Amino acid sequence: MITAELFEGVESVFGPDPVIADIAARRAEYDRLAAKWPVMGRQLADSRAKVAWAKARSHAIGGSDAASFAKIESAPLYLRAKMYNPFGGNGYTKHGNDREPHMLAALHREQNFTLFRSPGNPRHVATPDGIKLGADGSVLLVQCKTVLQKTKNGIPVEPFTSAKGDRVIPPDYRRQMFWEQYVMGAEQTVFAWEEHIDGRPTTPEPDTLILERDDFEISKLITIADLVLAGMDAAAQFEKEMQES
Fold it and tell me: Does the predicted model carry a pTM greater than 0.85?
């Protein structure tokens, strides 16, 4: 059901109506697709409705949160970051956001704006950059990143490359994608990246790697996420009791 809250904070240079109409149409289409792809029915908010989207994420663990979950012993640090992190983006994040639809178009995928929840816990959420629904009921995700081109002795250095010359995905990006795979029930993610110099892409199309699902790594992320959520709940309860005392 479409609710007024879904449209809170919608902004558009053309006024709110075109965006609201697209959100409603996309939500209805996703509900229709849920018969074959159940995940499409687990919608929480649309990132273009900024207030509702931010509100839904503030009480949950998303992919960008899980990206930092390197070890269980650091759960208190992740809790603090979740509750008090003032970061709201910078020039690099804006560039990445601006380039995302172009990268997805090169991969023949539409940009996703929907925040989804996992089937077992509504506070485990994700907003994948791109989604491909397979004819067999499978789900494939796309994660887009931009990277500033680096050089050594005037020669461009290939990004995401090990000392042996193998392509590797950084651990924080892997954790983000594992989390999204868990929430969305996906088995693979296309990791796409685009190099740039002063904001200009160096290649006409993004490079790609495939990340396969890893349930062991996902289980570790879930454990840490639940510890962080428990800490958030305890802090909220303490604040409530202080206000009532």
Answer: yes
129 and 111 Cβ atoms separated by less than 8 Å:
yes
What is the distance between the alpha carbons of residues 81 and 224, in angstroms, rounded to a whole number? 13
Eight-state DSSP code of residue 25: H
Residues in the chain: 245
Question: What's the one-letter identity of residue 131?
Answer: I
Give pLDDT tens digits for 103-118.
999 999 999 999 999 9
**Strands (DSSP E) found in the chain:** 43-46, 114-117, 125-126, 130-133, 139-148, 150-152, 155-157, 188-197, 200-201, 207-212
Report how far apart, in Å, the C-alpha atoms of 67 and of each of 5, 171, 201, 214, 242 are. Answer: 28, 8, 25, 15, 33
CATH number for 59-244 (one of 3.30.420.40, 3.30.2320.30, 3.90.320.10, 3.20.20.80): it is 3.90.320.10
